[in-house]
UniProtKB/TrEMBL annotation:
This is Site-specific recombinase XerD. Residues 720-743 are annotated as: Disordered.
Amino acid sequence: MLTSASSDLPLTLVHIAHALHESGFPDVVLPACLDCQATVPQLRNVVDGGRVCDTCLRLRQRVACSACGALVRPGPAVRADGLCRPCRSAARPVETCAGCGRQATITHRQADGTGLCQRCHRAPAGSCSRCGAVGRVYQRGDDPLCRACYTAPHLACARCGRVRPVHARSDDGPVCSSCHQRPLRKCGHCGAIARWHTRPTNGQPGYCNACHRRPVQPCASCGQQRPVSRHKAADGAFTCDTCRARPATCTFCGRHRLINVRWPIGAACSGCYQRIRRAPQPCPRCHQHRILIGLDHIGRRLCAGCADLDYDYTCRRCGASGSFPVDRTCYRCLAQARIHTLIAVEGEDVTARQALAEALLAAGTGEAVWRWLRPDGPTAALVTAIVDANMPLTHDLLDALPQQQALHRLRAVLVQHGVLPARAEQLERIEPWLEQQLTTLNAAHAHLVRTWARWTLHRRARQRLARRPFTGGAAHYQRACLTAAIRLLTWIDGYHLTLADLTQADVDRWRVEHPHEYSYLAKEFLRWARRRHLVGDVTITPRQRDHNPDALTEDEHWHHLRRALTDTTLPLDVRTASSLNLLYGMTLARISRLHTAEVLREAAAGDTHTYLLLGKHRLRLAPAVASLLHAQITAAARHPNAANAGPRWIFPGGLPGTHVAALHRKLARHQMPRAAHGRATALINLAAQLPPPLLVDLLGINIDTANQWARHASPDWGIYLTTRPAPTPTPGQKPRQARRADR
């Protein structure tokens, strides 16, 4: 490894090779960069085939400007609009700045109407320490400089060619801070080969970062002579490590914790610091959404700019305030850069890719999108596969990709923002799932199951879409039927039988060997095969149904209903769904599909009533249930997966634009009764008080269903009289017939 000049080796061996070469070992060959063949000690960037230096890595990461075609670095140089900085600046209107006199973009208007550029607006007024000119000055170290003296040391970098501040002088010429790499030296204390933190001065050797000796002076907190360093939580004062790690009382949460920063509004711990940074508010002075950390003379909270504080919590790209994880850049700008890296908006299909980029960016908050599209995540791989396919974005293209939860979420986002048309997603997912399940069957049996599913199950489901939606429960039933048929055919193959040779005894034996409850659903496949004369007269015995529904007792019913209406510790969606189920007998499938257009508010006789549309019927809700429903609508509007406009789901689901799919699990988790038991209890109580026609108008159910619940609520007492046993006579009492004969 040390003699091959290859850079495909760990970074530690690169450092060892340089140390041995400097110590005089002639056989050691320094590893070289794959692109420029430079033998620099810092080859920390791993690519396919070896390592590259920082400059070559930046050259590899360059993207083309959508206007001029120049290759520039991504990130701050190119934004989501695809323009480089010169092209973006050329597209903006410019004026003469009143501060520096140059033609620039105006960011601030003064009282007299003149404009200032961004640099002049932020720069304070003062006297230049070099030429003595009075005006706006810029700080370089401890010296205030005017604009002319401040920009004087800006030269063309000898490595990247950009005109930037000179960071160091090399053999090639001046270099900027990005291109400069501090050489590896020997630490004067520990002897390690590392970068110097301090240079040799006054006879003292150079020290690495680990051995750097901090100044010893009185601590600003405890006053003792200790090694100190600046700490932002102490307003930049020099504090020791002991005081820095000493907990204090947080002003905002009141807990005794380590203080992360001390603002004029109080000391904030790490949790409160992040919470305040993530919640910008309108500043009462500048009326912009900023982080309010300062105070005015009357105690109002102000932003850092209005309070003249040395804090800058604005994004350096878009100027928005918030929490910045990388390089003072907000999550939204990071998400835009990540989307731009995944989707190069160029070529012929620019409009489609731009729509895809806008849909991805609008999928949630900036932080959520940034984490959702992480480079090593499944969604980024799916977006890359879509772009590399170089085909129109359709549902068929997504169906050809691996079916996983990340794909379902990506499809829901594209449908919600109009990139893809809406479809019966639960039904369309079954066919790709079925193709994966049929890999275990032989070709003949797989063709039978595929034909049955496509021309019977799916065709029947598509015909019903005009009348009712295809729910998750219906999809679960179809998958169960297909799974039962696949298991039956697999069992037939195991016994070397054919479907035509199947007898009733074989079917009964399979039911005994497979007592799973889904095995009963194989009757659907056998019924279809018998009609097409593919199998003999075989069937699966129907299960006996219990016509007596499991209902709650009166005490249980009122106990759970009281919990749903008054217990504030329960989640709001659990309380709302349980109230509708226990009071009006609505199924969870119907409750989960409620949207805001089905809730009406009307004023009558000086009072406001809430109505719920159930098909063609209107149900007037009780005031307690109506208040819960309106609170749930307000909470659903803040849900990240809620629709941007139009009717919204009252119970939004985990995927964008969908309703909740597993509400029964959440009810069971909070000890609420099963929805079937609550529905039975509510309908029995209503049917005992109302006639069936009125029950149909009230709940929108079928008249046959209403008659069945009415018969169950009011049984035929004649049957009870005929089955009642005759009373047993007491000792010495004659039977009833003898007493009648005596009379």
